[in-house]
Records
---
Amino acid sequence: AKATQTKPNIKLEIIGKGSDKTRLETLIEKLEMQSYITLSGQVSMEKYYQKLADCDVVVNPCLKEGAVTIAFDSMSFGKPLICIDTGGYTRYFTNEYAVVIPKTSREELIANLAKGILQMTGTEIRKDKGQKAKEIGVQFDWSHKGKAISELINSRYKQHSN
């Protein structure tokens, strides 16, 4: 809501289902954000990937370790991520290719989230961060992880063989 006060063309689509739906619907209505926010519910994987391809930015506002898959998917689609530093998966994200918001008070967090969203309305910065995210994201795919695990096992094996 704060970000739309500055840039009224911002749209947010929340994908997924869960126990928070009623609270979100109430909040959207209270803040009069019905024309800005869409609750899409659960979608097929095909639609999920299409929505990722079509979006400008991915936002993960979880205050605890959550929605890790979407964070790494954002990288593979070359989309900048806005997230709250949970100390878990967020250790793999930097402000070079994402907007990592420190966990602070509710008011500060909301202000910083709005600031991050407004920052990402800039086409060039969004493109730049998205491209860097795609480049960095390669190291998090399964083939890269498999190779790293294999190398680790081989090095340990060689240490114990000698």
---
Amino acid sequence: DYEERRSIMDANPIHVSIAGRMMFKRVMGKASFCNIQDLQGSIQVYVARDAIGTGSYTDFKRSDIGDIFGLEGFAFRTRTGEISIHAEKMTLLSKSLQILPEKFHGLTDTDTRYRQRYVDLIMNPESKETFIKRSKIISAIRRYLDGEGFMEVETPMLVANAGGAAARPFETHFNALNEDLKLRISLELYLKRLIVGGLERVYEIGRVFRNEGLDTRHNPEFTLMELYQAYTDYNGMMDLTENLYRHVAQEVLGTTVIEYNGVQMDLGKPFERITMVDAVKKYAGVDWNEVETLEQARALAKEHHVEFEERHKKGDILALFFEEFAEEHLIQPTFVMDHPIEISPLTKKKPENPEYTERFEFFMN
């Protein structure tokens, strides 16, 4: 009974007003229950005809799942202990013209989830959590790099030469100069020019565009981060990368221990560092230090059923061995170092062994 509940709450009522999307509704004559969802979560609302008035209650009964309401009332606990709101005023703020998917199963259709991301966000709490976490991660990255003396910059998206990566660009035309231009496929070349110009530590978080295949892991436009630093070497950059991951995990999650695909990783522990040659030796049983000629490399590839092309040199075949035998084992955080010169353009050669470069790639899962 509304009056009875109201008199009980009069002693110390907690008045509230909230707004959100109605995700559930159960009408029971003169009283109903619904759930209202916003960015912070979901709460049950008790809606009684005697509390909000006959006209408002009639409108409420006609409302649909997905409608957005504002409401005022007071908080109480149900017999089962659930915190709920007893509505005293209900206002329809925005009508949902589209029917939402069936709630109990959420939204599972992959195509709809990617093409209509707003529906995915409404129906799947885990998707919303991913978006929130992504925003926090980018903020944490910025704070860390700013604290390390890096400047955030913006470089051109429209370029005459879409370099810095191997990908097909999108092409467009600039009428004012009657020039064909391309959308950038990476951030590299202009950031390096800023290093040349003396800025010393720069980074950019920006969109790049690649006119290629499309699937759930590849989008024609995506966000890339690149950073460049003068007066260090690849050991310093590995330290920076390791500390960045550790800092972001601690700040965003409150722990350096994370789990992915049922595998637990501790970003607080030192990351493994292994050369590509040692990784192939460890996981394929082939010691590339003993491979002296291209003919030997090709023979080993045929023996181990590693497919290669005529254009591939000795270093290319080493990289194919790495991809075939080693990469799948790199679950825990691992830096793979010293890539062969053949697959490492614009990279410093190792002074003691010019067949390899001072380059690293970070692997995890």
---
Amino acid sequence: MAFKLITDSCCDLPEKYINDNGLTVIPLMFTLDGNEYSDGSMDPKEFYSRVRRGSMPTTTLINTQRYLDEFTKILEEGDDFIYIAFSSALSGSYQCSVAAIEQLAKDYPNRRIAAIDSKCASMGQGLLVYHTVEKQKEGLGFDELVKFINETWPKVCHWFTVDDLNHLKRGGRLSATSAILGTLLSIKPVLHVDDNGKLIPMSKARGRKKSLAELVDAMKKSIKNPDGQMVMISHGDAGDEANEVAAMVREAFPGIRDIMINNVGTVIGAHSGPGTMALFYLGEPR
């Protein structure tokens, strides 16, 4: 029986890639200025423009009933599925997907269904999905693909920086004092996602240019087998700077195969803010 790959909108993959590869992407939700939207339904430039003007978005996970509705539709169409979820350390959505899977396993006892915690975020999750799609094209079966995903997510390196510290403060990942002092001194934190899928501050850079360079410096220390790799960069409405980071990556690693660049989506962008810059690749250790 055929099986589909499913992920959620926190993968931040370009719409064209999603459509070209027949992916099912379940959107998370966000609220802005009193109105609720699905992730991806608002143009990123409009979203970040409103945030820059002072709008404060909030986000909503995918609850169990929505998962049941989406998963049941796929099963009724005759496909089994593997769901690659946004990090459980950053959202409760994965736990809701597990609850849905447990119910569906009773209702569809002969079907093959799985939900996997990617421990990834933004295009780190997208990079994991990308490599999974490539392996599915090579002919890997259901069990082989589940094994591949679980072996690969610990190798997906995430390095990112933010331009406005107040968004990390609002999310509880930075104290108010640190945000104020950091803003006054033009300190930009450099963070990564650890093996538990949590955001961890790793260093502090003085100024924007330095923080962007530190992303590539971190990549130099931890990338493994760069030749032929797909690299991904996501940004919070900072396309010109994303291209600058891409140029630094190409200079450092002329053998990489390609770089995919896209906006940080509205749900993750609600917590990271405009000017976020993130770099993703395969390496060890994460």
